[in-house]
Amino acid sequence: MKKTIVWIAALVVGAILGLLGLHWLDQAMEFVAVVYTRLFQLLAVPTIVLAVITTFATFGAQGSGKIFGRTLTYTLLTTFAAAAVGAVLYVLVAPGNLPAEAIGQGREAISQTSHISYYSHLIGLIPNNIVKPFLEGNVLSLLLLAFAIGFGLSKLPESENKAVVVKGLLGLQELLFLLIRGLIWALPLGIVAFAAQLSAQVSAGVVADSIGKYVLVVLGGNVIQFFVVLPLFLLARGLNPAHVLGRMMPAVMMALFTKSSAATLPVTMDTAENRLGVRQNIARFVLPICTTINMNGCAAFILVTSLFVMQNGGTPITLTTILTWIVIAVVSAVGNAGVPMGCYFLTFSLMSGIGAPVAVLGIILPIYTIIDMVETAENVWSDSCVAAMVDHDLND
Asked: Rounded CA gap, 313 and 308, in Å?
């Protein structure tokens, strides 16, 4: 409770500092925020790889397969639920079409951004160099490598050489968690910096020009998924949502300000183990996987944004269209690229592929920062729920 009060106080202090409008102070807070995020990103990649390898190697492929099966089931259920909530809200709120001049402005904005090809992203998942995925931080490629290495270690006959390799990996993992605990100790400073940065952006009018009903659908869907749907999943498994959220609050707050599930992963794993009480072997296996494939917020964004863009291009939004794009959004979210603004660029690629007016996405750019923050917090909260449910299911 004491830590939570400190974090909330840091949030308030940061917001006040950002509203002061002092250029030198904004630059200082930006520097702290960037340093803090880079340090977590530094630890995130080896944390993911070591967690998967050691789990497979220590507990064997059969046990890990059971954990993975539960993880995948809950991931798909919660992701489909998020997309469905977005679809229902879209029908109820019914965002209107944008004026032609607004789309023209969006075309100018979108021309200043780069995008990734979804096909190139899928091909890029298959590593052809063992070092390159580490240098690029390609989480899905790293997971493929980690699965292969961990599975291979689990199949090796017991020997002194195998024991040395496994103990070395476990030792490296413990060292990483020691560094992570040090960063968590300094978390209030990071929260002050992130909150000040956001507050300065809002006061400068970065999010002033919203597009009303579209934003209401996207953020409203995230809020419903966060406070209603995911708690219902926990209740159905006999877990107390308030208890789980209270224990996982450090990770959720970190996700809100870093806008990166991968960068938040070290905090998520440490918090799940030491505050929520999820068993180590489950937390260190489930959470790295969820960070990559469990994208509730992304699925909702892809669905709602795609419908909005297609509608502005003259495509009738029928029930068949909505159901089709729910499936596309879920599959796309599960395979989403682990890059900044990944959901945005993925949606851009999907819309480009069907000839929709992608200039509409340029109008969303000024407010995407806020959307990305909320989505990431929801994703990490969903990861936490999946880990808690898997731990509960496999308690025996």
From this structure: 9
The amino acid sitting at 334 is V
Cα–Cα distances (Å) from 247 to 127, 217, 266, 373, in that order, read: 37, 29, 15, 20
Q: Which of 138, 178, 170 is nearest to 56 (CA)?
A: 170
Give the pLDDT confidence score for residue 313 in this predicted structure.
Answer: 81
Burial class (CB in 10 A: 0-12, 13-18, 19+), 291: buried
Q: Which of 253, 233, 255, 169 lies closest to 392 in space, CA to CA? A: 233
pLDDT digits (tens, 9 = 90+) for 90-101: 999 888 776 555
Counting Cα atoms < 13 Å in the Cβ hemisphere of 29 gives 29
In sequence order, which ranges of the chain are alpha helices (DSSP H)? 2-19, 23-93, 100-110, 118-124, 132-136, 139-155, 160-185, 187-203, 213-224, 230-236, 241-258, 261-271, 280-293, 296-312, 319-334, 342-353, 359-364, 368-393
Buried b (16+ CB within 10 A) or exposed e, 47-76: bbbbbbbbbbbbbebebbeebbebbbebbe
What are the tens digits of pLDDT across the range 239-259?
A: 999 999 999 999 998 888 877
Do 229 and 251 form a contact (C-beta atoms < 8 A)?
Answer: no
**What does the pLDDT read at residue 336?**
65
Confidence (pTM): 0.70
Give the separation between CA 137 and CA 145, rounded to whole angstroms.
13
- Residues of the chain under the 70 pLDDT cut: 1, 3-4, 41, 44-45, 48, 55, 58-64, 98-122, 124-125, 137-140, 198, 201-210, 335-342, 349, 352-353, 359, 362-363, 365-366, 396
d(CA 174, CA 180): 10
**What's the one-letter identity of residue 343?**
C
- Can you tell me the distance from the alpha carbon of 335 to that of 181, in angstroms, rounded to the nearest whole number? 30
